[in-house]
Amino acid sequence: MPRCAWAGTDPLMVAYHDEEWGVPVHDDQKLFEFLVLDAFQAGLSWRTILHKRENFRAAFDGFDAKRIAGYGERERQRLLADAGIVRNRLKVDATIGNARVLLRLLDEHGSFDAWIWQFTDGRTLQNSWASVDMIPARTTESDAMSKALKAEGFRFVGSTICYAFMQAAGMVNDHETSCFRYTEVAEAPAG
User: Fold this and answer.
1) Three-class SS state of 103
2) How buried is 176 (Cβ within 10 angstroms: 0-12 exposed, 13-18 middle, 19+ buried)?
3) Which domains does the chain show, CATH number per domain?
4) What span, in angstroms and rounded, lies between the C-alpha atoms of 141 and 113?
């Protein structure tokens, strides 16, 4: 079956491409997971992060924002010593801080899902890229998302990170038009 070129032949990458990437996500915890993982990806390959994903889940209590928001210095040091994840002090600190901001957003808006999907008017933007080379690294929507997230107090949420998040969370369909998933994702229920 024809797939997006970036999926390659790595079994984990292929499974992620075939089962998750571009499928609309409306679960707050899963959205937070993608935000965390995309922040950790900055400067690294998605393959690296994907291969450490289960370690991230274990290290960050299943991406439970309430638990992460309560992390203190002991948990921070544990994370910085964990070879199973990316041990970047700025990214670890940002994740803890972002969990605290997320909890505030949840109190104010009821759900992260409703808040974050406003940047695509609650729908998946359907693109039609013939090749991976055509896919942008950022868009006006990811610029707006980044600006709004930063204004709320989130860190490691630049426009490129936000666009990768939008792709992962199904806010945009960036499967190549020749990919077997392009039509499947385009026809998937909105959530």
Assistant:
1) helix
2) buried
3) 5-186 (1.10.340.30)
4) 16
**Burial degree of 31 (CB within 10 A; 0-12, 13-18, 19+):** buried
Angle between helices 159-168 and 140-152 (to 10 degrees): 110
Beta bridge partners of 57: none
C-alpha closest to that of 20 among 1, 4, 43, 39: 4
- Would residue 177 be called left, alpha or beta, if left means φ above 0 and alpha means ψ between -120 and 50 degrees? alpha
Find the helix or strand (DSSP H, E) in which 183 lies: helix 180-186
- Nearest Cα neighbor of 166 from 133, 134, 143 is 143
Confirm whether pTM is higher than 0.90: yes
User: Distance between CA 182 and CA 129 in Å, rounded?
Assistant: 10
pLDDT by 10s per residue, the chain, length 191: 899 999 999 999 999 999 999 999 999 999 999 999 999 999 999 999 999 999 999 999 999 999 999 999 999 999 999 999 999 999 999 999 999 999 999 999 999 999 999 999 999 999 999 999 999 999 999 999 999 999 999 999 999 999 999 999 999 999 999 999 999 999 877 65
DSSP string, 39-96: HHHTTS-HHHHHHTHHHHHHHTGGG-HHHHHT--HHHHHHHHT-TTS---HHHHHHHH
